[in-house]
Specification:
The structure holds three protein chains of three kinds. Chain A is of the alpha+beta class. Chain A is built from eleven helices and 14 strands. Chain A has two domains: about 150 residues, Uridine Diphospho-n-acetylenolpyruvylglucosamine Reductase, domain 3 (2-Layer Sandwich), CATH 3.30.465.10; about 110 residues, CO dehydrogenase flavoprotein, C-terminal domain (Enolase-like, domain 1), CATH 3.30.390.50. Chain A is about 35% helix and about 20% strand. Chain A is globular and about 55 Å long. Classes of the chains: A alpha+beta, B alpha+beta, C alpha+beta.
C-alpha cells in the first residue's frame, strides 16, 4: 500500500485510478486499511479549497473536506446543524467530512440524506459543471475510478421550517441509523411546491421517496395527506437487511417515522 | 442510590460491617485512570509475530482439502499451522472438571460446524501480512445442510452438527439426552388445578462485547518455559487447557493475567493461549493471537439462545400447584460451558417459589451457530426472564395483582425446594413489599403481613409423597465413566455414536456407581438421592451461624 | 510499505519515529513510541477506546494515519497527570468511574476537551461529549458524575 499526497485537487484527481482511493477524514478509508481491504494506493490532498465554506446568495458551497464539527460551528450552515450533530460522536465529527459522507454505505451516510432532500449539487475535481447529487450517488461504485468531490453546493431553504431531518436509532443518546429521513417541503401560498423526501439505509445509497413526494406535491400537510404519504413511503425503496434491522422491519416502520416527521413539520 | 432497609431481618444481623455500605476505591484504579494498567497487549516484544486464522465462510461444511502452499510463500509469513500441528487437537473446556466429552478441535481438520470456525492459522511478521496470507489459503469446502434452530436440530433427520453427540443433544450423566428434574407429580396436579397457564419464551444470543477483544501473547522463556500474557478471566483454567492441548506439564507454562479489559463471561474459553503458545513453540519467537472486533462479534462465544416452554397448574386461590418446564439451550456447534449452564439452571427451577410438583426436561442442543459460553449468570438469567414473564401471566389468570401473586407463592424459610434442599435466608417477600411500596401498588392485607421468616417449614418442608419418574430420553453407548480422558492421550475421544435407545425399562435411578461420572464436580440437581433424606426442618430456622460455600447454591448458612 | 519519519509533539515533548505509510496512529503510538494508554477496541472508529487529542480536538487514533500527525500536537491519557494526578483522574477514582479500565484513557480525553471548552457543562453536555466512547462496565452514570464533579470542583477552586 502506498500513500500519495498532492498539493492540489487537480493533481490528486489526475492520480486517481482503479487501484486508488481518495482519503479525506479517514473514517471510512482507514477502516479498510486496518482490515487489510483497502485499495493499494491512497490519495490525499491538503488543497485549501477542500475546507472552504462560501455563501453563494441562495445557497452555500461547502468544501468536501469540511468536517461535521466545522459544519456545526458555521453560521451559514445553521440549517444543517441538527444533521451534522446527528453524525457520530465528537471524535467522528472532528474527522468525518461532508464529501466522505457521500461515499458512506449504510448505516452511515446520514448527512448525504439531508443533502439529497435539499437538492444539493456536487462539484467534482477536474470536471466542469456541478452535477446533481442523485447522479453521483447513482454512479457510486459503478465506475472503476472513483471521482474526487471538491465541493457540495447546497441551496438554503428559504423557510427553515420547510426542512426537517430525523435519524432513527436504537441506541440513546447516539447510535447508527436504522434509517434516516430528510424532507424539504417548500410552500407557495400554503401549498407544497417541489417536495423532496430522502431516506437513508433504505437502499444501496440514500434514495428519494418519489411516491410520497408526489402525494405531497400541491397539498398542505393535513392528516389525510400525511397518511397517504406514509403509506407510500417505501415505494421504490429497497431496504437492506443488516445487523441493525431486517428489510421487513424497515419497511414496516418507515411510514410511521415519515408520518411523525411530517406531523412535526406541520406543528412547526 | 443505594438504600439500606435495615429494619428487615434486624435481629439476625450483627450489623458490624466494615465495608458494606461504605465507599471504597478499587485497588487497581490508579493504573486505570493513568493508562498504565497492563492489559495483555501492553507487553511489548521485539520481533513479535502475529497469528490470524483462516475461518469457515459456511455454517456447516466438510473440508475436502486445505491448500496453504500459496500462503506459505506470501511476504512475511513465517509458518502456517493446521490441525495436525496441534499436539492434542480435541478438547472440551469442562474436561478439566471431568465433565463432557472432548468435542472441539483447535483447528478443524475434517469439517466445520459454524461460520467462522478456524481451520488454519497464519503466523506472520505483521498483522497486515497475516491478513493477506489468510486470503491466500484455499479451502475446498463441501457445503453441508445446516440447522440453526434448537427444535429443528432435535428432530429426526436433522443434520448432525457434532459427531461426538449424534443426536445433537449433550448426554447427561452418561445416561440421558437431557437434564431431568422430577419432584412430585405434575400431571396429577394439573388434573386438579383450576387454571392451566402455558407459555413459550425465547431469548436470543447476546455477545458480551468486552471493550478489549480476547487475545494472548506467548513467548519463549528461560528454562524451556513459555510465558503467556492473556486476557483470560480464568487464568488457571486457561493454563490447564493449554497444558492439555499442548501435552506439556503446566509447570512449563508461565501465565500472566488478571488485568482484563472487560470479560462478562466471554473470556473463559481459552481459545487464544494454546495457539499463541504453539506459535511460540514452533517459531521460537513471541506470538500474538488476538481477535479483531469483527471476530469478537462473529466467533466470540455469546450467551446462548434459550427457548422455554412453561406450563403451570394454579389453584383458585392463586397457589401454584405444579410447574412443568421444557427447555432448549442453544449450545451452538460445540459444548463449551452450555452443559454446565443447564445443570445450574435446572438447580434453580422452579424459581424462588414453593411449588409442590415440578418437572423439567432441559436439553443442551447443538446447532450450526457460534458456540455459546458463559455470560453473567448464564443458565439462570434466561429462564428467570421466562419464569417471571410466566408469573405475570399466571397472576392475570388467577385474577391477582402480580406482586400479591408472587408473595403468595414465594419461598419462606424452611420450605422444601424442588432440588430437595431447604430454603434459607429467603427475602423475596420483603423485596416484593418494597417494590410495591415504591411503585405505589396497594397489596392485600395478607401480602402486607407476610414475611419470609414465618409460615415456612412444617408441611411445606415435606418432600412429595410420590415422585413420578420415567426413562424418557435414555441413551445407550455413553458410559458415565468415560467423561473425558485424563492426561490428554493422543487417541482422542471414543465417540460412541450409537443410536438413542427407545425408552428402556431399566429402573430410573439405580445405576451402579461405576456408571456414574467419576467424582462429578457438580451435584446434578436432577438426580435425586436413592433414598432422599432431607435434613429435618429445624423448628427454629435460625439464620445465625457460620457460612459454608456450596458450589450449587452459593453461600448458605448452616 | 515505505517508512516515513514522523515528528510531532506528544504530551508536550517532541518525538520522532518512523512509521509505515498505512500505519494508524494507535499502533504507531503504542508500538512505535511506546505510549500504551490509547487502547484498541474495534479498529473501526466505533468504540472510542483509542481517543487522543490532536491540536485540542478529540480524534480516533485507529482511524488516523500516523504520517498525518507530522508537526501536530498529540495528547494522550498517559500525559494527563503532570506531577500529580489530574482532577479528572481524581474524580474518576473517587466516583468509581472505571471498572475494567479499558475505556478510561479514551473517556478521559473526551472529558478533558469538554471541560477545556465548557467549564460548566450540563449533564446533557457531558452525555453528548462522551457519546463516542463506549463503556461496557459502568453503565456510564459514575463517569458522568465524575466529569460533572470535576467541573464543580474547578468552579469552587
Amino acid at each position: 500500500m502506498r500513500v500519495e499526497s498532492y498539493a492540489t485537487l487537480a493533481e490528486a484527481a489526475r492520480a486517481m485510478g482503479p487501484d486508488a482511493v481518495f482519503m479525506a477524514g479517514g473514517t471510512l478509508v482507514m477502516r479498510d486499511v486496518n482490515a487489510g481491504t483497502s485499495a493499494s494506493r491512497i490519495v490525499r490532498s491538503a488543497d485549501p479549497v477542500l475546507t472552504e465554506i462560501r455563501s453563494t446568495g441562495d445557497g452555500v458551497s461547502i468544501g468536501a473536506g469540511v468536517t461535521m464539527a466545522q459544519a456545526l460551528a458555521n453560521r451559514d450552515l445553521a440549517f444543517l446543524s441538527s444533521v451534522a450533530r446527528s453524525v457520530g460522536g465528537p471524535q467522528v465529527r472532528n474527522m468525518a467530512t461532508i464529501g466522505g459522507n457521500i461515499f458512506a454505505h449504510h448505516p452511515y451516510g446520514d448527512f448525504a440524506v439531508a443533502l439529497l432532500a435539499l437538492g444539493a449539487r456536487v462539484v467534482l475535481a477536474g470536471q466542469g459543471a456541478a452535477k446533481p447529487l442523485e447522479d453521483v450517488l447513482r454512479e457510486r461504485g459503478r465506475s472503476s475510478t472513483s471521482p474526487i468531490i471538491a465541493a457540495i453546493e447546497v441551496p438554503r431553504p428559504r423557510d427553515p421550517r420547510a426542512f426537517a431531518f430525523a435519524k432513527i436509532s436504537r441506541i440513546k443518546p447516539k447510535g447508527v441509523s436504522v434509517m434516516s429521513i430528510a424532507a424539504h417541503l417548500p410552500r407557495e401560498g400554503g401549498r407544497i411546491r417541489g417536495a423532496r423526501i430522502a431516506f437513508g439505509a433504505m437502499g444501496p445509497t440514500p434514495l428519494r421517496a418519489t411516491a410520497a413526494e408526489r402525494v405531497l406535491e400541491g397539498q398542505s400537510l393535513d392528516a389525510a395527506t400525511i397518511a397517504r404519504a406514509a403509506q407510500l413511503a417505501c415505494d421504490g425503496l429497497d431496504p437492506p437487511t443488516d445487523a441493525l434491522a431486517s428489510a421487513w422491519y424497515r419497511r414496516e416502520v418507515a411510514g410511521t417515522h415519515l408520518k411523525r416527521l411530517l406531523e412535526k413539520m406541520e406543528r412547526g | 442510590m443505594i438504600e439500606f432497609r435495615k429494619e428487615f431481618f434486624a435481629n439476625e444481623r450483627d450489623d458490624n460491617l466494615n465495608e458494606i455500605g461504605k465507599a471504597t476505591r478499587r485497588q487497581d484504579i490508579l493504573g486505570h485512570v493513568t493508562g498504565r494498567s497492563p492489559y495483555f497487549d501492553d507487553h511489548l516484544f521485539e520481533g513479535l509475530l502475529h497469528i490470524r486464522c483462516v475461518r469457515s465462510p459456511h455454517h456447516h461444511a466438510r473440508i475436502r482439502r486445505i491448500d496453504v502452499s500459496a500462503a506459505e510463500k506470501m511476504p512475511g509469513v513465517v509458518r502456517v499451522l493446521l490441525g495436525k500441528d496441534v499436539p492434542l487437537n480435541l478438547n472440551t473446556l469442562l474436561s478439566l472438571l471431568d465433565f463432557g466429552l472432548d468435542d472441539e478441535p483447535v483447528l478443524s481438520t475434517t469439517k466445520v460446524a459454524y461460520k467462522g470456525e478456524p481451520v488454519a492459522a497464519i503466523i506472520a511478521e505483521s498483522e497486515a501480512q497475516a491478513r493477506a496470507a489468510v486470503l491466500a489459503v484455499k479451502v475446498d469446502w463441501e457445503v453441508l445442510p445446516h440447522v440453526l434452530d434448537v427444535e429443528d436440530a432435535v428432530k429426526p433427520g436433522a443434520p448432525v452438527v457434532c459427531d461426538v453427540y449424534p443426536s445433537n443433544k449433550f448426554i447427561y450423566h452418561g445416561k440421558f439426552d437431557h437434564q431431568k428434574l422430577r419432584y412430585g407429580d405434575v400431571e396429577e396436579a394439573f388434573a386438579r388445578a383450576d387454571h392451566i397457564v402455558e407459555g413459550r419464551y425465547q431469548m436470543s444470543p447476546i455477545e458480551q462485547a468486552p471493550m478489549e477483544t480476547c487475545g494472548a501473547i506467548a513467548a519463549p522463556e528461560v528454562n524451556d518455559r513459555f510465558v503467556c500474557f492473556t486476557s483470560t478471566q480464568g487464568l488457571f483454567f486457561s493454563l490447564g487447557t493449554a497444558a492439555k492441548l499442548l501435552t506439556m506439564p503446566s509447570s512449563r507454562l508461565h501465565f500472566v493475567g488478571g488485568t482484563v479489559g472487560g470479560g462478562f463471561g466471554g473470556k473463559v474459553d481459552s481459545m487464544h493461549e494454546p495457539l499463541a503458545i504453539l506459535g511460540a513453540m514452533l517459531t521460537g519467537r513471541p506470538c500474538k493471537y488476538a481477535w479483531d472486533r469483527e471476530e469478537e462479534m462473529q466467533v466470540g462465544a455469546p450467551r446462548g439462545a434459550e427457548r422455554w416452554y412453561i406450563k403451570d397448574g394454579i389453584a383458585r386461590d392463586g397457589r401454584i400447584l405444579a410447574r412443568k418446564f421444557t427447555g432448549y439451550f442453544d449450545s451452538g456447534a460445540y459444548t463449551r460451558l452450555s452443559s454446565y449452564a443447564i445443570i445450574k439452571g435446572v438447580g434453580h427451577l422452579p424459581g424462588p417459589y414453593t411449588i409442590p410438583n415440578v418437572y423439567a426436561d432441559v436439553f443442551c442442543v447443538y446447532t450450526n451457530r457460534t458456540p455459546a459460553t458463559a455470560m453473567r449468570g448464564f443458565g439462570i438469567t434466561g429462564v428467570d426472564f421466562a419464569i417471571e414473564a410466566h408469573m405475570d401471566k399466571g397472576a392475570e389468570m388467577a385474577g391477582l395483582n402480580p406482586i400479591d401473586f408472587r408473595i403468595l407463592n414465594s419461598y419462606r424459610d424452611g420450605d422444601m425446594k424442588a432440588h430437595r434442599r431447604l430454603a434459607k435466608n429467603c427475602a423475596l417477600v420483603e423485596c416484593c413489599q418494597v417494590v410495591a411500596e415504591k411503585g405505589g401498588v396497594v397489596l392485600t392485607q395478607a401480602s402486607r403481613a407476610a414475611t419470609s421468616v414465618l409460615d415456612g417449614g412444617g408441611e411445606r418442608a415435606r418432600l412429595p409423597s410420590r415422585t413420578a419418574t420415567d426413562q424418557n430420553g435414555i441413551v445407550s453407548g455413553f458410559k458415565g465413566g468415560n467423561y473425558a480422558k485424563k492426561g490428554g492421550g493422543a487417541s482422542g475421544p471414543q465417540p460412541v455414536a450409537l443410536p438413542i435407545a427407545a425408552s428402556a425399562p431399566t429402573p430410573a435411578y439405580a445405576s451402579p456407581a461405576s456408571l456414574r461420572p467419576a467424582a462429578p464436580a457438580y451435584q446434578p440437581a436432577a438426580t435425586p438421592p436413592p433414598a432422599p433424606q432431607p435434613p429435618a426442618p429445624a423448628a427454629d430456622t435460625a439464620r445465625h451461624g457460620a457460612l459454608r460455600f456450596s458450589s450449587l447454591s452459593g453461600f448458605r448458612r448452616r | 510499505m515505505a517508512k516515513k519519519p514522523v515528528t510531532f509533539i506528544l504530551n508536550g515533548s517532541e518525538r520522532a519515529a518512523f512509521a509505515e505509510e498505512g500505519l494508524n496512529l494507535l499502533e504507531f503510538l503504542r508500538r512505535g513510541i511506546g505510549d500504551l494508554s490509547p487502547k484498541y477496541g474495534c479498529g473501526q472508529g466505533t468504540c472510542g477506546a483509542c481517543t487522543v487529542i490532536i491540536d485540542g480536538e478529540t480524534h480516533l487514533s485507529c482511524l488516523t494515519m500516523a504520517v498525518a500527525i507530522e508537526g501536530r500536537k498529540v495528547e494522550t491519557a498517559s500525559g494527563l497527570a503532570n506531577g500529580k494526578v489530574h482532577p479528572l483522574q481524581e474524580a474518576f477514582m473517587e466516583h468509581f468511574a472505571a471498572q475494567c479500565g479499558y475505556c478510561t484513557p479514551g473517556m478521559l480525553m473526551s472529558a478533558k476537551v469538554l471541560l477545556d471548552r465548557n467549564p460548566a457543562p450540563t449533564r446533557a453536555d457531558v452525555i453528548e461529549a462522551i457519546s463516542g466512547n463506549l463503556c461496557r462496565c459502568t453503565g456510564y452514570e459514575p463517569i458522568i458524575d465524575a466529569i460533572l464533579a470535576t467541573a464543580n470542583m474547578r468552579r469552587l477552586a
